[in-house]
Amino acid sequence: MPSDFNQQIIDEFRANEGRVGGMFEGAPLVLLTTTGAKSGKPVTTPVMYLADGDRYIVIASNAGADNHPAWYHNLRANPGATAEIGTETFEVKAEFVEGEERDQLYARMVAQAPGFAEYEAKTTRRIPVVALYRTAA
Known about the structure:
Blueprint: H1 4-15, E1 29-35, E2 42-52, E3 55-59, H2 70-77, E4 80-85, E5 88-97, H3 99-112, H4 115-122, E6 129-134
Antiparallel strand pairs: 1-2, 1-4, 2-3, 3-6, 4-5, 5-6
Organism: Nonomuraea composti
Pfam families: F420H2_quin_red
Protein name: Nitroreductase family deazaflavin-dependent oxidoreductase
């Protein structure tokens, strides 16, 4: 079940063709629906993304907390998910990016949204980078 904060963003996103105001105004957001690793139930989370060719890059920053976000654990357990961007909904498969490519993509996200540098500074964990690929319907 999404937090009240996330639920407000989800509702606003869906009511306004993928646009939201407040702290995420103008930010590229995807509504990522994963399957709960423990519950097996669908869980929707708004996540900022970075477009990268035919894939969407998401960062498991959890706002710099010392633990990975639930959606990341869900994708580890089941890499298939649903993405909503704007008015489009499509299936995706997650791949976990490592090494130099991970560092380059994280730096690109920081350039797009400088808050990600603060998240990295707040935690000792290596923040995961995940690539979402569209799958055939």
